[in-house]
Design goal:
- Helices cover 18% and strands 33% of the residues.
- The protein is built from five helices and 13 strands.
- Strand 2 and strand 3 form a beta hairpin.
- It is α+β, with helices and mostly antiparallel strands.
- It is globular, with a radius of gyration of 19 Å.
- The longest helix is centred in the middle third of the chain and has 14 residues.
- The chain has one domain: Cupin (Jelly Rolls), CATH 2.60.120.650.
- The strands form three sheets. Strands 1-11-8-13-7-6-2-3 form an eight-stranded antiparallel sheet, with helices on one face. Strands 10-9-12 form a three-stranded antiparallel sheet, with no helix packed on it. The chain has a two-stranded antiparallel ribbon with strand order 4-5.
């Protein structure tokens, strides 16, 4: 299993939960996701895909596959969108390959949380992400390829509001106060506490992974993923 020095890097969160940038934290970021992995995921329709166009999610057409009743994306629509400048999100990537599963497991073991991984990416300078917003879970944002401009703000959303209530309405101009402004390079990681306003402003080809974390105590119905990789002993049979 891949080991990371999470506790030492984020020792302060036990008494002062604040954003932090971890430079060169991942030694080999491309082991977690590549463009070949992206093509494979979309072609096999094994994860839930979203597209962002002009900072708004696009409705992707789909249908229920006859044999399983599984929702199936129209994958040509997705490829056409990406190739013409849409940002993509691959949800439920956490168990797609062993390297990303091990990375998620290392966070779960350190902080006793439930995690999931989502891949964000785009090809062009017009591949915009969401407007500045908050996420209810805490997040680790891992830069895999390219350079992305990030702004993290001092503002926090109230726990009186849910995700929809916080992010649905336009934020007034000059309301957000920048805490730090940084260019993330491959291997860099940002830790974002729950409900922290943040925004990504990509300017070219890039891949990143967002790892969302929620306390196990807050998820009483939690059933852990089996992150072990097993083998079939087929060699012993003729």
């Amino acid at each position: 299993m891949t080991q990371h020095n999470w506790p030492a890097a984020l020792r302060h969160i036990r008494y002062k939960d604040e954003p932090i940038v971890l430079k060169n934290f991942l030694n080999n970021p491309s082991q977690y996701v590549t463009w070949k992995d992206i093509e494979d995921v979309i072609n096999k329709d094994c994860c839930y895909i979203e597209l962002i166009r002009d900072q708004v999610k696009v409705d992707i057409p789909g249908f229920k596959y006859f044999w399983f009743g599984k929702h199936t994306h129209h994958k040509k629509f997705i490829f056409d969108g990406i190739n013409s400048g849409d940002t993509f999100i691959i949800n439920q990537y956490t168990n797609y390959k062993k390297d990303i599963s091990d990375l998620c497991a290392s966070i779960e073991e350190c902080y006793d949380v439930v995690v999931d991984a989502h891949v964000y990416g785009g090809l062009m300078s017009n591949c915009k992400s969401f407007k500045p917003h908050v996420d209810i879970p805490a997040n680790f944002i891992c830069q895999i390829e390219g350079i992305t401009h990030w702004q993290v703000y001092k503002n926090r959303s109230s726990a009186l509001l849910n995700h929809y209530q916080t992010n649905t309405f336009a934020i007034p101009d000059n309301t957000l106060e920048v805490e730090f402004d940084v260019m993330l390079e491959p291997g860099d990681v940002i830790y974002l506490p729950s409900r922290t306003f943040h925004g990504a402003f990509p300017s070219g080809k890039r891949l990143s992974i967002s790892i969302s974390c929620k306390s196990k105590e807050a998820t009483p119905d939690y059933i852990p993923l089996d992150r072990n990789y097993y083998k079939i002993n087929h060699e012993q049979y003729q």
